Amino acid sequence: MTGNDEFLFFIIAGFVGGFVNVIAGGAKLFVFPMLLAFGLPPLVANATATVGLWPAQLPGAWVFRDTLARDRKGHALDALITATGAVIGVVLLYTLGEAVFLPLVPAFLAIAVIAILFGDYLPKLGQHLAVNRVAARALFFLTGIYAGYFGAGYGFMIMAAVFLAGESSIHVAGARKNFISFGANTAAVIPLSMTGLVAWEAAIAILLGGLVGGGFGGRVMNFIPQKSLKIIVAGFGFTLVARYILFL
Q1: Comparing C-alpha atoms, which of 213, 214, 142 is closest to residue 184?
Q2: Which listed residue, of 112, 147, 173, 178, carries a Cα 20 to 30 Å from 28's Cα?
Q3: Is residue 152 helix, strand or coil?
């Protein structure tokens, strides 16, 4: 495979990730296995996917910035807690290495599939539970660790923590989720960029493909029922999990 063919493959991976992320969430569930299939080592594939998909968080965090004006300090603290967890997740990924990471990958992929299928119910669960800011921030911290270590589907978990913290508006909760996710991803990307695990050509191609895929997905999603899309995406994800386990 020539250099141009490789770059095109990574652009396609990014396109798939951006498309899936817009219509159902869980971009990394697809990008990570595609990078593995290309031949990147698991830790490199994981770090490259995280860095390449990071810019996808920017629009969501910027567009809804005014929605968070009511409690800027509280939102900033939640983001800082999650970001701290993300840095710890990256440190664990780097120090524990591939021997620990590899056996956990099927579980992480399964978490992503479950998050896509049942992610809409997590906020409802958070609303039904008693408001507990301490418990919510503990969940922010744990979610941050997961975001830094692997991260597929973690946006749904953050959404649940937002509602557990007492948020009642779905619009504000979505804005907070985007803001906190952006903080966690940024905190993860910075140390990941210094580990030597990122394949930069692939990360840049994923970034470019993700922007195009996200724009295309935004147009398509208006014509296909959201629930059907999530079932389709989760079905493909389940196939990827099964394939990974069989070839582990």
Answers
A1: 142
A2: 173
A3: coil
H-helix or E-strand containing 170?
Answer: helix 170-192
221 CB-contact burial (10 Å; exposed 0-12 / middle 13-18 / buried 19+): middle
> Which residue ranges of the chain lie beneath pLDDT 50?
247
User: In terms of Cα–Cα distance, which of 55, 153, 164 is closest to 109?
Assistant: 153
Nearest to 199 by CA among 91, 59, 50: 50
Residue carrying the six token digits 């905190």: 187
Average per-residue pLDDT for the chain = 80
Q: What tokens does 236 get?
A: 């493909």
Give the pLDDT confidence score for residue 176 in this predicted structure.
81
Tokens representing 16?
């798939």
pLDDT digits (tens, 9 = 90+) for 69-113: 676 787 788 889 999 999 999 999 999 999 999 888 888 877 777
Which residues are within 8 A (CB) of 165 and not within 5 positions of it... i.e. 6 or more apart? 78, 131, 132, 133, 136, 137
Q: pTM of the full predicted structure? A: 0.81
pLDDT of res. 241 = 65
Number of Cβ within 10 Å of residue 157's Cβ equals 22
Residue entry with tokens 């800082």: 80
